[in-house]
TrEMBL record:
It holds the Pfam family Abhydrolase_1. InterPro entries: AB_hydrolase_1 (IPR000073), AB_hydrolase_fold (IPR029058), Epox_hydrolase-like (IPR000639). This is Pimeloyl-ACP methyl ester carboxylesterase. It comes from the Bacteria. GO terms for molecular function: hydrolase activity. The keyword Acetylation does not apply. Residues 23-262 form the AB hydrolase-1 domain.
Length: 277
């Protein structure tokens, strides 16, 4: 075990697979990240005898970066995760997602409930409930801006990535993000997540992603320093869960909860993995 390259869904993925023969935990990162997001949680999980699988999602890290917008549709992202689980012969797993990884986790739990034993959603609530109020539309201004192909890429790169640094509030891993996004095709691949899955009409109350209710236990986690996600969208997600639902607010952390509150999140995760529904 360790980091390896797996082929699935027509692409190659860099996947960290570590730990023992215990229950599996799948960790899904978001924008503009990689499996490195989970570097504080993985040792804690392994020490508790879990098997941990943390892929670089398509377009990020060392995984393949297809170029066209349509290659980043949600159904393909879910297919990627299923292909990774199949390649590793994992029938079912607990899932933890952050940002786009949370969106994928919601879709995975709704569409393939037999593969997800429980789900922890960090920062991003259920896709069908995301634009639940005007405040969230205001916070999500960047999603509309990212729709402009070429314009967004140029603006984000300008002046040593000044816009990215200001918008994200210079998070812990900003220099890693800049280095990763500066690789050929990487920035466009990252922006294609928004272009493929967040149509402009969603801001006006148009049809978004509709998914079946999630039947497994779900813990929604939001941090009060998040610059992109409001609390209302996470609270509204409980209506999309037919199984046990619980909510936790983390104080004093920004959007990247695994890096801003590593100990608190690790302890919360370990408790969630063993608590009864």
């Amino acid at each position: 075990m360790g980091t390896s390259v797996l082929t699935g869904n027509g692409l190659s993925f860099s996947v960290e697979d570590t730990g023992g023969n215990g229950p599996t935990v799948l960790l899904l990162h978001g924008f503009p990240d990689s499996a490195a997001l989970w570097r504080n949680q993985i040792p804690k999980l392994v020490a508790a005898r879990y098997r941990v699988i943390a892929p670089d999602l398509r377009g990020f890290g060392s995984s393949d970066r297809p170029g066209e917008v349509e290659n980043y549709r949600m159904e393909l992202l879910v297919g990627d995760v299923l292909s990774i689980l199949d390649a590793l012969e994992v029938r079912s797993t607990a899932v933890v997602g952050h940002d786009w990884g949370s969106g994928i986790g919601w879709a995975l739990a709704g569409l393939s409930p037999e593969r997800v034993t429980r789900f922890m959603a960090l920062s991003v609530g259920h896709p069908s409930s995301y634009f639940t109020d005007l405040r969230q539309r205001e916070l999500s201004w960047y999603m509309l801006f990212f729709q402009f192909i070429g314009v967004a890429e140029e603006a984000l790169r300008r002046n040593d990535w000044a816009l990215l640094r200001e918008w994200t509030n210079n998070p812990v891993d900003i220099e890693r993000y800049v280095t990763d996004l500066d690789r050929p095709g990487a920035l466009t691949a990252a922006l294609n997540y928004y272009r493929a899955n967040v149509p402009p009409e969603a801001f006006g109350g148009g049809a978004g992603i509709e998914l079946p209710p999630v039947t497994c236990p779900v813990l929604g986690v939001w941090s009060d320093g998040d610059m992109a996600c409001g609390e209302a969208q996470m609270l509204a997600s409980g209506k999309r869960v037919s199984g046990p639902w619980r909510y936790k607010r983390i104080r004093g952390a920004g959007h990247w909860i695994p890096l801003d509150a590593p100990e608190e999140l690790s302890n919360l995760l370990l408790d969630f993995l063993v608590e009864s529904p």
